[in-house]
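Structure tokens please, single chain.
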Amino acid sequence: MKAVLITPPFTQLNTPYPATSYIKGFLNTLQIDVFQCDLGLEVILEVFCKSGLEDIFQIIEDGEIELSDVAYRVFTQRYKYIKTIDAVIHFLQNKNQTLALTICAGGYLPEGSRFAQVEQLDWAFGTMGTHDKARHLATLYLEDLGDLITEAIDSHFGFSRYAERLGRTATHFDDMYKALQSENSYISNVLLGLVDKCITTQNPDVVCITAPFPGNVFGAFKCGQYIKANFPNTKVVFGGGYANTELRSVYDERVFEFVDFITLDDGEAPIQHLLEYLQGKREKSLLKRTFCLSGGVVTYINGSTEFDIPQKEVGTPDYSDLLLDKYLSVIEIVNPMHRLWSDGRWNKLTLAHGCYWGKCSFCDVTLDYIKRYEPVSAAMLCDRIEEIINQTGQNGFHFVDEAAPPALMRDLAIEIVRRELTVVWWTNIRFEKSFTPDLCRLLRRSGCIAVSGGLEVASDRLLDKMKKGVTVAQVARVSKAFTESGIMVHAYLMYGFPTQTAQETINSLEMVRQMFESGVIQSGFWHQFAMTAHSPVGLDPAAFGVVQTGPAFGGFAENDYFHEDVEGADHELFSDGLKVSIFNYMQGVGFDEALDVWFDFDVPQTTIDADFIENALLDELVQPLRPHDQLVWIGGEPVEMIVTPVKKSKKGEASVQYAEIIVSDVLENYALFFNQAVAEWVISLLENASPESGLKFTVQQMRDSFTEADLGDVGGFESSEGFERLREKGLLVL
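Here you go.
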């Protein structure tokens, strides 16, 4: 049995979407012969090269296509684009770094309409960001070409999506079906040429196509259409995020002209069952969460009595076969977190299946990928991290959890430090109180560089209605803990939640303004609320004060609902103003402007106190010493103890003998002062609390050890300046 796993166009330019790597890692455990490819990247590389651009410009010239002024500007520079494209692509693949100087000097890249914003970039890159600025300019160069392609070659084209309109809110299959019957565009022909090459070379029995987003769906069906027409003995399986959320009720039989099977939720068990069925080892009735056509009717089969594959048995994601050295590091926009998404090659890994919170009323908490929480041990995660680093040569990781569990993050960080791994990582979190300053310091030491989390509507009433389990003040304090430890904070922001008033929108903006001004968050983005079928709001709109107004389900996709907010504001009005304001706040400007300056209509004055966030930050996160808390020392290695000679007083009495512990840390050598007996005990304390010891050393064990050493009152020690300095230098309480 041979399987091919395909990611169709388009997801990201900088790193592979992880679905196929996850499935390949699992199929490896079953000894299945499997090959994977990211056709999104491969199409981009086929189009954005010298020969590809020559083809595109020739099509425009031969077809005498009428162009807008913007597109015509790019067309008139066609020879310059053809001359420079290969060098630019190599630069974005980090293979020709010295080109940055030429790009930044100007006069090398042809410039279209996208370059109109260049004058606004000095604040983002300054004088020291030559490489970053060059990558952003090279990205604008590609986007100018992309605009030309969209206008003159294929209206469906986009660098991170393809025919997204056809997949979004596609309750009926009609538009998708019509598009699939249309004449192939140049982009589609490139895609199908790559499909043909892959299937001819690999000769698989099964092709599994993942479509995580609406912008992958047309490409997925296009691949399936070609395979079924030209390789009729190869079975086509369709799954991924889009199927899991949108196709749970599919009944239009035309869908199965392009695929043979659609699987839902975690793919490991359904694919294993399907392969067993195709090998004659399993009855069709015992498939798991699988749609297929039976007797001309769409049939859902879920007769398997076996559980899903435990996370500890799914294997390590396998990135082999993918063209890891050919992904493009681009900087599309200068939002700091968005830059992480589009810049650099990140290995994707999940700490835990599902969400440990699982209550947010706007989220698809009823679906398996959210509601079934199953963590993986820190040791196993580190084993997988090491295996992936050895496999890919990359030590950057994006943990793609819905919300990374704080306790597991703590244990993982300790294990990373214990193994002395060099890892750079970021993830999504909930802003909960367990993210203390000490935990944030540990996460930073382990390699965490950024977190993103949902502040959503910065209104306690609405946060409670959302069941977020946080308050605005708490978010501010947790963000401060991350920021002061050196971890960047990105806030997901929402407007238009059911019953949200204009006053609450402006008050939320004021909260966000204060957080940026205080420096506790560095990045953010406003999203308008969308009501989905599998969220508590979608399941019971009336309970949240909204009315579902459609669309009528027509047998294909069902997830996004239209709705009317009978109690709330006209949310669409606020979109542009919110986005412009946060763009300015991320630049560090506009804090003194009245909030109404961002809007072209009258808005209410904020009722939030001007020092609300400042006062919230004064209320520090209290971190008392509890007996079961773990002590972890990250402050460096004691390298020497210098004992001060005993001096006798004039009365002949010996003074207390003191000792100086010299500690070598990454940034400095420093001294800790105690009396000699305590100093000797402190050295053993630091050894026990060091991650390298492999011990889980608690506050109670510290207290017992202090008492057994007969060193006096342990309470007095815990309130002493010496212990306070230990805490300051890296004795963390977790």
